[in-house]
Structure formats: structure tokens, C-alpha cells
Amino acid sequence: MKLIIDETRCKGCNLCTLVCPYRIFQEGTAPNRRGIVVPTLDRPERCTNCRLQKLYGRVLCGVCQMICPDQAIRWVEEGPFEPQKVVIED
Amino acid sequence: MNFQDWLRADRLPHIYCTGCGNGTVINCTLNAVNQMGWTPEETVFVSGIGCSSRAPGYIITDSLHTTHGRAIPFATGVKLARPDLHVVVFTGDGDLAAIGGNHFIHGCRRNIDLTVICMNNYIYGMTGGQGSPCTPLGAYSTTTPYGCDEAPFDLASLAVAAGANYVSRWTSYHVQELTRAVKAGLETPGFSLIEAVVQCPTGYGRRNKLREAQDMIAWMRDHAVLLKKWRRMDEEGVPHDPATFPVGEFVRRNLPAMGVPK
Amino acid sequence: MQGNTACAEGALAAGCRFYGGYPITPSTEIAEHMARKMPKIGGVFAQMEDELASIASVIGASWTGARAMTATSGPGFSLMMENIGYAVMTETPCVIVDVQRGGPSTGQPTRAAQGDMMQCRFGSHGDMSIIAVSPASVQEMYELTAKAFNLADRYRVPTFVMADEIIGHMRERIAVPDSVEVVPRRPLEKGTLPFAPGEDNVPGFPAFGHGYGVHVTGLTHDDRGYPSSTDPRVHERLVRRLVGKVEGANREIADYEVTNPDAEVVFISYGAPSRSVAQAIRDLDDERVGHLRLKVVWPFPDFALAAFKNARVFLVPELNLGQMVREAARHTAVPVVPISEIGGELHTPRRLITMAEGYL
After folding, report:
1. Biggest CA pair distance of chain A
2. With respect to CATH, is domain A2-76 assigned 3.30.70.20?
């Protein structure tokens, strides 16, 4: 599973940065197209939910999702691995 | 079903200001409702007027966004006419304690099978931050520019005294506890009040040296005292810091209730 | 049977299964009768904490699909105004009985008046149209209350039974029919928007608990029911529809009785004073004196005045200082004269005869 912030919903209150035990959410620096400074994710794969949600069959921590007043945080399925063709310029 | 599936995705983002705690309370409530295993068809959300009362408009169930202070009598009508429906009321401190105060205590007295979630942000948010019956002594608002000189309501204790079957108070910082409390309220037959103290950085924090949502969340974390500890302090005669408030489960009992499906 | 009892019985016959009320003279007998009857037939009687809560509970119950009503009198009626506006905006069918008493304020709790006729029409803020009936006998208390439920459900609008203390407390022998006509609410077709106007500007009803997922709000809303309170076009379209669905159906809704259509002097009456007029017409026994008796008062049947082609004057006896007389005057070039009576006594037929003779 992959942790994402829905930029169309986030209003940049940074409450997620306050509650995450792994400090995955970091205050953003640059405003997006709507003029909102959305937090950035620091190595989100460390989140227990990303790794173990499927295994345990339930949400393990989820405090960021619960406290997010704008319903902007959720976990989505990661796309299956797709081989990419890389062109190496010489 | 995930609790986010209960939201009307086409209406998001909602109208709440940046950092408003109401969104958090919606999350906790929907999470609890979802955990109950109820379907949207058998659940009804009712609300009055105010920031808090905009919440049902973002939920996919049948919902009634009514007039100021009257959410509980509207919900009473729905519940008595269709006891099989689960009726949840969203309200705020102004809606519930000021203009709707009479309906609130009579709802508790009747012990009608509703779950009332009061988002207490200490002020009237929708109209721009006026003092409410829950504004703490000394706090600043647009109508208390020299500090509030009226004593505030203790909603939870009021509901206990008026006869509600389940009463608890948490804050939007205590998301897990709040979710559990809402679930307990939904499970308890009869009137349940869950008072959720929420931050209003725009209307309240800005005028009370808590400008950012994070500051307000930290303030609630530091000033919420667990009810057990609060009562122990009472027994030991330790005075309470006037800025602190007790959180926890105030009462869970089984008084005769109305509107409970047979 | 007493008028108030007949009102309650008419409501029950029409399928009313929710009553939310608060005691107030002279309407209390309706609540008392409902309290006795409702539990026996599986309905709900709720005595609420005030009239604000009474009408609120009625609207809440109505949204579950139940036929719901409340009854009150002047002071309680004033308290209900805000939520009546809510019912208009949200198109909630409900029946409100107002057994009118002398006002303003606490006034004369035990004496009759017709001082709330304009309040029921214009009492809540904003532009709106409602339906009101006015019974003139105990029999009509029964029939018109039952009819009010059909009108409320048909047009999705709060419908008023504007009775008065005289009719409410009067005892008469009535004929109770085996059954009354019940026209049920048209449900919303699945897949259509909950507030999209149909052909007749009345949307189908999406009752709670049937999976419609409807959001009902008193804010200006679009066809989906979602708030849209700043767009002038949405507001104008909505409010024009809410008013138009009632005013446009004026001829369909109208219910009145005409005596001597070729008359020159015509009484217009509704409610209790109709009885005095009827007696005066009988005593006069003159084809030059006619009578237009309104059973449906709002929307006002303006075309009924035009039908009196020979009318030289309209006389409007009312138990107030002149309310419906203004509405009548608005619709005709013929002089319209009020005959006011306040204090609780009905006009004497003698007084009406003298008035009529003065114009002959």
C-alpha cells in the first residue's frame, strides 16, 4: 500500500506533521497551484500501515488519516511492477 | 467499507477553514459508524446551524440540515416515526447550548435514542468568532473584546444531570479515544452526548495566542486532564488549573429510554 | 362531536400517524384526543417541550414518509414561524392547525379571532406561498383537516387549517364517512435528482430510509439538494418554483361555495363568520345579496370575485380589523368593505343585514 496526500483536498494545516510517530510528514516549502503548501512525505514506506495493513487486515495506526480535517490522507494500492524501457544515450 | 467511503466525494474539499477540528470529528464519527456495520440506507444525520452543522452535507446518507438550535427536535421526529433508523446529530456549542439549550436538556430527559456529537469550539465560528455559552472565562472573541466575563457551560455534566445514558468528552487531538467514545455512544440505547472539543484557529485561536492549528492541538493535549485523575485531584483536594478541563467517559448507564427499536 | 375532536378524527382518518404538539388553549383538545388515539393505532404522539420543537418534530417525522401534524394557537403559532419557512424551503408536507384566539400576545385565550390569516401567509421570512383552509363547521373541521393532508402531500407544502375558537369548541352532530379520500405522496423516481422540478414543479418525495441519500437543507439548494447560497440564479429559480407551484395551481386547489351569483351586494367570508352570513342571507331572502364562502383561503381564489358580474360592493366580515379584506380588494375594482368584529363575539346576522341593506 502507498500513503498519499490528496492535493485537491489538503489545505495545508500540517496537523499530520504533529502526530506521525515516524515523522513521515514534513512541512512543505513550496505552494502548489492552488496556493497551498502541502506537506511532503519523507520515505513514506516506513509507515507501518503501508507495510502491514494487508497482512493484519486492519488499519494499524492511521492517526494521520483520522486527524486530517480535510480527509486528504489515504492509502492506495500500489500499481503492479511494470518493466520500464530505459534508453541510454551515448 | 472504509470510513472515507461515507463521504460525498463530489462535495470535497469542504468549507471548513485550514486546520479546523470539525473535519477530524467527522472522521472519528464516520469511523465509529462504519465500525458498527451500519449501512448508509439505515443511518440519518441531522444537524442545526453553524460550522459543525455543515457536516451532514458531506455524508452520503439521508441528512437533515435544519434551523438553528432545533436539530434535536427534528431528530426526535425522525427517530420516533422510524425507530429502526440510526439517527446521529451533529451540533456545536452555540447550536446546542445557547439557542438549543431547552431542546438539549429535554432530549436528555426523554433519553431519546439519539447520538449527539457536539463540536465545541468555544465560539460561534460561522458568524466570525463571537462569544458562545462555552467561551472560557477571560477568553477573547469578537463580542468579548475585553475577555469573557461569563462563566461557561459544562456540557458533559449538564447532560449527566439531565439524564442522558452516555456522556463523554474528548478533543480532536484524542482521535482514537474519540472514535471509541462515539462508538460507545452509538451502541448505548438512549441519549448519548459526545462532546468533542475542537480547535478553531480562525475564530478562537487567532484571538487567544494560539494562531496555528498545531498550537491549538498542542494546547488541548496539554490541558485535557483524564477524568480519573481529575476526580482523584478532587478527592485529594488538589486545586485544578482553571485552564484545564476533564476528558473521558462521564457516565454510561441504562435509564429508561425512548425511541429504542423493539 | 366537538370541533377539535373532529379535527383530530379527520386527521386520523386521513392517515396521520405522527402528532407533535404542545398544550395551548383553545387547541389542546386536539392533542388530548391524539394522545388517547395514536398509541392504539400504532402512531406516535409526542408532547414536545415547546412549539419550536413541535413543528420541528413534525417536519422530521414527515421526512420518514409519515403524515404528520401539529396544532396550536396564536402565541405558539408565532413560535413556529421559523420552522414553517424551513418546511417551505425544504418542501416538507405537514399540516398545522391553528385554532385562532384573540391577540396580540397572550390576548384572549378563550375567545375566537381570525387574526392569524396574514401570519400564516406571510409570517415566516422570505418569499413563499402556502395553502390554508378555513372550516366553518364541525363537519368541515373533519373534512378539511383530512383534505389538508392531501393538499400538503400533493404540493409538498405546509398546509394550514385556520380554525378559530368558536369552531374548535363548538359541538355539532356530524356525519363521519366510512373512509376519506387519501392521495398518497408521490415518491421520487430512483435516478432523478431529489429537487429537480417535475412537470408540475413538484418533485417526487425521497423519504428517509429508502436509500435515496438525500441531503435536505434550508439553505438555497440546487436540484441535487446541495447548498448553493450565493448564486443569484439558483436562488431565483428555486424560490420562483416554490411560489409558482402553489400559485400556479390556484384553480386546482380552490374550494369555495357561491350563493346568488348574480347578486349586487356580495359577502365574502371564511370560518365562523360564514355562519352569521348564511343566517343573514336566509333572513334577507333576496337574490341581490350573495355570498362567497371560502373553504380554501390561501391561495386566494381571485377569479371567484370576477364571477360575480353584477357585484357593486363586496362586504368582508372577519374576526379581525381587516386582513383578507385587503387581499380581496387587491383583485377587484369593485369597492370592498370590511366588517370587523373583535373581542370574541361573532357578528350578529342583524348587523350584517343592516350593512347589506345599506347598499341595496
Report:
1. 50
2. yes
